[in-house]
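tl;dr need the bound structure. longer version: we got a ligand (magnesium ion) that a collaborator sent over and nobodys looked at where it sits. i said id run it. heres the input, straight from their email, havent touched it
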Amino acid sequence: MNDNLDNAEILLVEDDKISRKMVAYHLKKHGYTVYPVENGQAALDFLEEKIPNLIICDIMMPVMDGMELRKRLLNHPDLRLVPFIFLSAKADLQDKVEGWMMVVGDYMTKPVEPVELIARVKSVLARHSLYEEMINYDHLTGLMSRRNMEQKMTYELARIKRFGRDFSVVMLDIDHFKKLNDTHGHAFGDEVLKEVAQTLKDSIREVDFVGRMGGEEFVIAMPETDKETGFVIAERVRKSVAALEFKENVQVTISGGVSAAPEDGLAQADLLKVADDALYEAKNNGRNQIVAAKSKTS
Ligand SMILES: [Mg+2]
């Protein structure tokens, strides 16, 4: 998948050779990368290896037709989110209605004008990117969403496994956040969340990523970082937050727990659990502190 929409990767599913060549030609001319396959089954095989930014799919095809492919994709937890356009010779209103009912980004009929093809592709890609932004970023703080964090961590951890690198995870939680909300109001609570989020953003390197996991809980994930360094960075963040100035001299503090791969696990769920346990210890020890999980190996 390519993040830059101007050279998006498009899976083109079309059995007719001439039509496939024509459509691929116009898409490529506009900078898109095109992967042509001949039927629904070939598309499924392709999708096991690679997830494109968009699928453009014919309906009438041998082996597996477009309707069947669409049905299968809609039942797939990841693939159902890939933008999908039907491009078919079936141009009757009833055909179009059937196509639209398959939760598609668009339904185009053949032969399609190149200008129209490109305009519709651009529109579907742009619309999808708006959804992605909504899903992947927390509205209040602008930090990565939990879903985005989990996906990014899973992806990064697969690399760690392959290359045997370090990876540190810090789980942070604002101390007595409920009390802050109850005493000073929710608008103040929101301001605290935004300020803490900004502090986190300012504290990390370009390669690190930080997300809001929900409520007053944040996670920093740091590739190529061992637990000791993760702890040092978390301490720095903790001090920066404690130094923030709020109205009426309200003091805001955070507690944190640090875990690291490979010693605490190689799955994001394990690393988050170990960091969370360390965070719990920090809370029990009196808050406004960071605890690094004890290594199982030492
Ligand atoms: Mg066909």
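gonna send this back to them w/ a short note. The first strand starts at residue 9 and ends at 13.
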